[in-house]
Amino acid sequence: MRIGELAERAGLSRDAVRFYEKVGLLKGRRLANGYRDFPPETVEWLRYVRVAQALGFSLAEIAAHGATLRAAEDPAETLSALLRAKLAVIDARLAELGALRGELAARIGQPCPFAPAVLTGPDLL
Fold first, then answer.
1. What does pLDDT average to over the chain?
2. Where are the alpha helices (DSSP H) in 23-110?
3. CB 20 within 8 A of CB 49
4. Long-range contacts of 41-45, Cβ-Cβ distance < 8 Å, separation of 24 or more
5. 3-state class of 29 per DSSP?
6. Contact at 8 Å (CB) between 23 and 59?
7. How far apart are CA 90 and CA 61, in angstroms?
8. How confident is the model at residue 123 (pLDDT cuts 50, 70, 90)?
9. For the chain, is the Cβ count within 10 Å smaller at the N or the C terminus?
């Protein structure tokens, strides 16, 4: 199918399809007239890409996962493993943000909130 039909069926703009092709997420063949031609399964792949982006996966991660999923004996389990790994990353980031929040909250109202915490003792100010 040509790029216009693909874009319409996937709910994307032609520019988005071109961008995904440029970054390596899609590979269309060129017809003799120069038009791009994509296989029908590309529609489902683009829908997957959009959902994966909405779930916080980068385009690089999606590209790597695509190869992993295509090679998997059990794609559903492989996808579940990828989701569990993403959850672990998010949990770690939440812990980091919680610690940062605590540090910021502790500095509110301090005479010099940007001084290192070890220098805020009464003898050092």
1. 89
2. 42-54, 59-71, 75-107
3. yes
4. 42/1, 42/6, 42/10, 43/6, 43/9, 43/10
5. strand
6. yes
7. 14
8. low
9. C
Query: Which amino acid is it at 85?
Result: A
Place of tokens 């994509």: 38
d(C-alpha 43, C-alpha 58), whole Å = 19
All residues at 6 or more sequence positions from 71 whose CB lies less than 8 Å from its CB, including other chains: none
> pLDDT tens across 41-96, in order?
999 999 999 999 999 999 999 998 888 888 889 989 999 999 999 999 999 999 99
Q: Per DSSP, what are the bridge partners of residue 36?
A: 30
Distance CA 81, CA 74 (A): 11
Phi, psi dihedrals of residue 84, rounded to the nearest 5°: -65, -40
Structure tokens, 97 = 């943000």
